[in-house]
Design a protein that fits this description.
The complex is a heterodimer of chains A (165) and B (440). Chain A has 165 residues and is an alpha+beta fold. Chain A has a single domain, classed as 2-Layer Sandwich (60s Ribosomal Protein L30, Chain: A), CATH 3.30.1330. Chain A contains 5 helices and 4 strands; from the N terminus they run ααβαβαβαβ. Chain A has a 4-stranded mixed β-sheet with strand order 1-4-2-3. By secondary structure, chain B is mostly beta strands. Chain B folds into 2 domains: 121 residues, Rossmann fold; 255 residues, Neuraminidase (6 Propeller). A 5-stranded mixed β-sheet of chain B has the order 2-1-3-4-5. In chain B, helix 3 packs across helix 5. Classes of the chains: A alpha+beta (165), B mainly beta (440). The interface between A and B is large, with 41 and 51 residues.
């Protein structure tokens, strides 16, 4: 019954191997500041160090509990991110969606997908082509703060943009 | 397969390999007495006021001292009979009073209040174990069930579970599910899929992907499981064989390919796929082709659960603002909301008898395992200590496994379907338990 999957399986494996090399690069946490060299290289010629600069300049978008709507603060962050991404039209963007630990795991996966979708939708409305973007939900599986309090939960309800060439 | 160097080629379920031996047992299993005359010992499971049957379990005896302990064998039986919720297990006097012919003196045990007695004897010959198990009706003073099992000494727990399955069959006409397994996800950073005997023994690792793996669900034939995994950095649906040797993708569309559940006939899979980043319930074939989109609209839909006859699905949607349980015909149609009393309801799982849906509800700020009838009536909360979620039914419908943090870490628990007995079973932290079908 699963024989035809073998072909997909091996294709997927080759894909993983190719991808594994491409995704091993270090991810720097965003600090909200655009690096001085931003935009200097021009489209299509971004260096590895500059990619990290772009990555660290992107703002994390935060959400309210059990909610995927965009607050005014979230919209401001996305607007800022859109401006950054427009300067690098060749960069691919993975829009990650995350939740805090207070929901159940499966529903959180759905909620994280929707959060990523909300961010991607606004980015698209601001002129970032959908073909450049992918949404990936991690539900509550990858908290940035492992503590069990409101401060940690607020940090974990987020959407993070991960850029690659 | 060399492209997958990280897979441990674990022999997950030695019973497949020993299928020949298993058949031999089936032939060797001798029904010593099978008396079906009137006024027999019987548990009417349909009686809503059913009390627990007091049952006495004695140490198993052997005429040779060895590595196996007769009290250990008895404790396997005590755990099984306790966890299924049908019995009050009483320790038998030690040594057991015997009649002149060497049989248990049932007359002298009748004052204990116990209605039944389980005892037996065993014989070890090298690595081979032979066990004779007996169930007595104390009030009628007769033997109700006698079985002899022969197998490998290392499989002594399985042998005792087999006898307990037969005890329940004798008393309720439905075999127990003590010979089944529970799959779960460990609570480490890379979450791998494991499985264990339903009572927590014989833990085996199925995956070693080094990535996040979530939500295992058994194929109805018991030969493999589907699960959601980030092997390709996206939540895709994968299949793993029970021996851990075959890992193949089932659905890897853009967005979610999550919370897959095999249909009861094993021919299709319900899961959540993303439509413009909105999770919707779909039915796909086992080779990944879309058969039908079941839900529409703007709600986030997740966690499909088949009714045992395959005609309906329960699922979670937040289309009304908070996650709630809905049901929908498997052929499509209007969804019907069945949870109304609490604000956060997720993880539905239909009981094997079809009469109940177990789910997770938020009660006073914490998650509790609850049951409700498929028409939305008779909502009952089964747990109260700590946070409890992810219920999954045993194939006989008498027990529910779930994840609880009541002891500080997330562990897999088992309780009877009414919640009267609740015990941790997984020796390691874990979550997302999925009870296997009957394994042959």
């Amino acid at each position: 019954m699963y024989n035809r999957h073998l072909i997909i399986y091996f294709t997927a494996l080759i894909f993983i191997i190719i991808l594994a090399g491409g995704c091993a690069r270090k991810i720097v946490k965003p600090d909200g500041m655009i690096s001085p060299g931003l935009g200097m290289g021009g489209p299509g010629s971004i260096a590895e160090g500059e990619l990290q600069g772009v990555q660290s300049s992107l703002k994390t978008v935060y959400f309210d509990f059990d909610n995927y709507s965009l607050s005014p603060e979230a919209q401001t962050s996305i607007d800022y991110n859109a401006e950054v991404l427009k300067r690098y039209p060749n960069l691919i963007v993975v829009v990650e969606g995350h939740c805090d630990e207070r929901g159940t795991a499966e529903y959180n996966l759905a909620l994280g997908e929707r959060r990523a979708g909300s961010v991607a939708e606004r980015l698209a409305a601001l002129g970032i082509p959908s073909s450049r973007m992918n949404t990936v939900s991690f539900g509550s599986e990858l908290p940035v703060d492992p503590n069990h309090n409101e401060e940690a939960w607020a940090k974990n309800r987020r959407s993070y943009l991960r850029v690659s060439k | 397969m060399s492209a997958y160097p990280h897979y441990s080629h674990v022999v997950e379920w030695k019973w497949f390999i020993k299928a020949g031996g298993f058949l031999l047992w089936a032939i060797l299993a001798i029904c010593l007495i099978c008396d079906s005359s009137s006024a027999k010992l019987l548990i009417d499971v349909d009686n809503p006021n059913l009390g627990k049957m007091p049952i006495m379990v004695g140490h198993f005896t052997s005429n040779q001292p060895g590595s196996l302990s007769g009290s250990d064998l008895a404790s396997i039986i005590r755990t099984d009979l306790t966890l299924c919720g049908l019995f009050d297990v009483i320790e038998a006097p030690q040594p057991l009073p015997l009649t002149k012919n060497g049989d248990p003196d049932l007359n002298s045990l009748s004052s204990s209040g116990a209605q039944a007695l389980v005892v037996g004897s065993f014989h070890v010959n090298g690595s081979e174990l032979s066990v004779e198990c007996r169930l007595y009706d104390i009030s009628l003073q007769r033997l109700d069930l006698g079985k002899r099992f022969t197998g490998s000494l290392s499989d002594h727990r399985y042998i005792m579970h087999m006898f307990d399955d037969r005890i329940l069959e004798k008393l309720t006409n439905l075999p127990g599910s003590f010979t089944t397994r529970i799959a779960f996800v460990d609570d480490a950073k890379t979450r791998e899929i494991f499985s264990m005997d339903y009572d927590g023994y014989n833990v085996r690792q199925l995956t070693a992907t080094g990535t996040i793996n979530l939500f295992p669900d058994w194929a109805p034939d018991g030969k493999g499981l589907i699960f959601t995994s980030y092997i390709n950095r996206n939540p895709d649906l994968w299949y793993v064989s029970v021996d851990g040797q075959r890992v193949i993708p089932v659905s890897n569309r853009k967005g979610l390919n999550a919370a897959g559940r095999f249909s009861p006939d094993g021919a299709s899979i319900a899961l959540a796929l993303s439509v413009k980043a909105i999770p919707k319930i779909f039915i796909i074939s086992t080779d990944g082709n879309i058969i039908k989109q079941l839900t529409n609209g703007l709600g986030n839909d997740i966690s499909p659960a088949w009714s045992p006859d395959g005609t309906y699905l329960a699922y979670v949607s937040d289309q009304a603002g908070s996650p709630q349980i809905y049901t929908v015909p498997a052929t499509g149609g209007a969804p019907r909301r069945i949870t109304l009393s609490t604000s956060y309801n997720t993880d539905p799982r239909w009981s094997p008898r079809g009469d109940l849906i177990a789910f997770t509800a938020k009660v006073d700020g914490r998650f509790q395992v609850c049951v409700i009838k498929p028409d939305g009536s008779e909502f009952k909360i089964l747990t109260s200590k700590g946070s409890n979620q992810n219920p999954s039914w045993s194939p006989d419908g008498r027990m529910i496994t779930f994840c609880s943090n009541r002891d500080g870490t997330k562990r897999i628990f088992v309780m009877d379907a009414k919640g009267t007995v609740q015990a941790p079973v997984s020796p390691i932290p874990g979550r997302s338990p999925a009870w296997s079908p009957r394994l042959k």
